[in-house]
Amino acid sequence: MGRGKIEIKRIDNATSRQVTFSKRRSGLFKKARELSILCDAEVGLVVFSSTGRLYEFASTRKKLILPTSMKSVIERYTEAKEEHMQTMSASAEAKAAMLLRN
Amino acid sequence: MGRGKIEIKRIDNATSRQVTFSKRRSGLFKKARELSILCDAEVGLVVFSSTGRLYEFASTRKKLILPTSMKSVIERYTEAKEEHMQTMSASAEAKAAMLLRN
DNA sequence: GCGTCTATATATAATGG
DNA sequence: TCCATTATATATAGACG
User: Fold this and answer.
1) I need a surface site. Which of A5, B17, B19, B35 has the fewest CB within 10 A?
2) Which pLDDT score, from 0 to 100, does residue A20 have?
3) DSSP letters for A15-62
4) Where is the MADS-box domain (chains A, B) (predicted)?
5) CA A37 to CA B59: how far, in whole Å?
6) Closest Cα of chain B to A63: distance in Å?
7) Which residues of A touch B41 (CB under 8 A)?
8) In this structure, are residues B62 and B39 in contact, taking their beta carbons and an 8 Å threshold?
């Protein structure tokens, strides 16, 4: 969807990979949100950039259940969260919150 | 993106809501997959239709962490999963599916 | 409900500042 | 390294079988 057609394979150039990530992530989240609204669906979306930054969306409507395949993800999340909590200090709290927020 | 422009609000007609769900879900998953490949990102996507059917995608690469806002989701998943396991029998498959449905 | 078919809306690749 | 633009690729609304 652009001036040229691209193959779906890892973009080698780090810069353009970052640019594409930014654009497509934005589009993906937009569509996730639209789906949840239009179709009254529960949607949970988690994205980690290759640099480890977290982005999330979750429609908060009724009941959302995670799929089995995400079990490991949940486990890792729990671990990370615990680590996070352990190393968290009062002043680091805000920083971490911001980090998680974007 | 079609013959006409639509507002982003819940589609009242159940039939067209289902049709739209099917189409957009497909597109969303495709884009989730593309993002993960193109940008070497970790992506986890969970969708529950309004009728309770589950759809998922998770790139299995490196580190995927769930966002804070998904905590309740995880909890619910865990609960449901436990229930599922407890009541599951070979012949109870269908029943379990119903359980997950809502 | 599900696949196919367009016309049109949107997303976005490439580019320029 | 970001914004803004814009040409093009893609997604999809609406219609039909």
Assistant:
1) A5
2) 96
3) HHHHHHHHHHHHHHHHHHHHHHHHTT-EEEEEEE-TT--EEEEE--SS
4) 1-61
5) 25
6) 8
7) 21, 25, 47-50
8) no
